[in-house]
């Protein structure tokens, strides 16, 4: 069965410091991996995705994520955090061997960036 | 370009009442989805539509029905609302399945008393 875990409910960082939001997954076949961000009272917005190729994926707003097949992880990173990055972040995964449209979302990690 | 729109934004129902949540997208996407978001549980798929004319159950379909009215519109109906259906509901769309990211509407906050 597919699953995705975001082990931290909340991540706190100081503005200007690097940030990491963790994600691990379990799927059948090769994974398609996504990161989304949700600001208060808004829908989710797509940040970046890994489908195949280079393990380091760059996305919107200076975010990047690294796919690690051996550790089944897809951690979200940013070299220098901004206060405006404070939001709820979701990792999502879909396995290539599953039928239909069953993208599984993690429970979310709240990022708080302090000025 | 409005993207994905949802109506209403807020709704309060009494147990047993019915209602339909409306969703429309203007991106010419083939696939559409309905999710519910509950604290600490992420998003759970209720129903999806791979393409116009098709619908299928997701992870938590009980108590809901859907209609893919045309390529643009995908509605979610609660026939007899229950307090357990208190949640925030999101509609999303994507070009098709698999590698494509989803685009989300602003959500409907539903409270069932």
Summarize the structure.
Chain A has 115 residues and is mainly β.
- Bulk shape of chain A: globular
H/E series of chain A: EEEEEEEEEEEE
* β-strand amount of chain B: over 45%
Helix content of chain B: under 10%
Largest interface: A-B, 23 and 27 residues
Low-pLDDT runs of 5+ residues of chain B are: none
Largest sheet of chain A: 6 strands, mixed
Classify the secondary structure makeup of chain B into a structural class: mainly beta
Chain oligomer state:
heterodimer
Helix fraction of chain A by DSSP (H/I, runs of at least 4): under 10%
What is the CA–CA distance across the termini of chain B? 36 Å
How would the global form of chain B be characterised? globular
- Straight-line N-to-C gap of chain A: 41 Å
What structural category arises from helix and sheet content of chain A?
A: mainly beta
Question: Helical segment tally of chain B?
Answer: 0
Order of helices and strands of chain B: EEEEEEEEEEE
Indicate the low-confidence ranges of chain A by residue numbers: none
Kindly state the number of beta strands of chain A: 12
Task: Write down the Rg of chain A.
Answer: 14 Å
| Arithmetic mean pLDDT of chain B | 94
Q: Number of helical segments of chain A?
A: 0
Describe this structure in words.
With 115 residues, chain A is mainly β. Helices cover 0% and strands 52% of the residues of chain A. In chain A, the strands form three sheets. In chain A, strands 2, 5, 6, 10, 11 and 12 form a six-stranded mixed β-sheet that branches. By secondary structure, chain B is mainly β. Helix content of chain B is 0%, strand content 50%. In chain B, strand 5 and strand 6 form a beta hairpin. The radius of gyration of chain B is 13 Å and the shape is globular. The interface between A and B is medium-sized, with 23 and 27 residues.
Which helices and strands, and how do they pair?
The complex is a heterodimer of chains A (115) and B (113).
Chain A: E1 3-5, E2 10-14, E3 19-21, E4 24-26, E5 31-38, E6 44-50, E7 56-58, E8 64-68, E9 73-78, E10 87-95, E11 104-105, E12 109-114
Chain B: E1 4-7, E2 10-13, E3 19-25, E4 31-37, E5 43-49, E6 56-57, E7 64-68, E8 74-78, E9 87-94, E10 103-104, E11 108-112
Parallel strand pairs in B: 2-11
Antiparallel strand pairs in B: 1-3, 3-8, 4-5, 4-9, 5-6, 7-8, 9-10, 9-11
């Amino acid at each position: 069965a597919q699953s995705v875990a975001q082990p931290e409910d909340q991540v706190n960082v100081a503005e200007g410091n690097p940030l990491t939001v963790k994600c691990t997954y379990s799927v059948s076949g090769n994974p398609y991996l996504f990161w989304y961000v949700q600001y208060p009272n808004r829908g989710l917005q797509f940040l970046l995705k890994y489908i195949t190729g280079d393990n380091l994926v760059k996305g919107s707003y200076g975010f990047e994520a690294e796919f690690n097949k051996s550790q089944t992880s897809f951690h979200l990173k940013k070299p220098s955090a901004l206060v405006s990055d404070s939001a709820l972040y979701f990792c999502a995964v879909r396995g290539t061997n599953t039928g239909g449209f069953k993208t599984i979302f993690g429970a979310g990690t709240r990022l708080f960036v302090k000025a | 370009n409005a993207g994905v729109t949802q109506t209403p934004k807020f709704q309060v129902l009494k147990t047993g009442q019915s209602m339909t949540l409306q969703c429309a997208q203007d991106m010419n996407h083939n696939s559409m989805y309905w999710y519910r978001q509950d604290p600490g549980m992420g998003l759970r798929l209720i129903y999806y539509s791979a393409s116009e004319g098709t619908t299928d159950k997701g992870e938590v379909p009980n108590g809901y029905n859907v209609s893919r009215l045309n390529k643009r519109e995908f509605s979610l109906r609660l026939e007899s609302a229950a307090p357990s259906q208190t949640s925030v509901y999101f509609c999303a769309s994507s070009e098709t399945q698999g590698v494509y990211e989803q685009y989300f509407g602003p959500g409907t906050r539903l409270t069932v008393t």
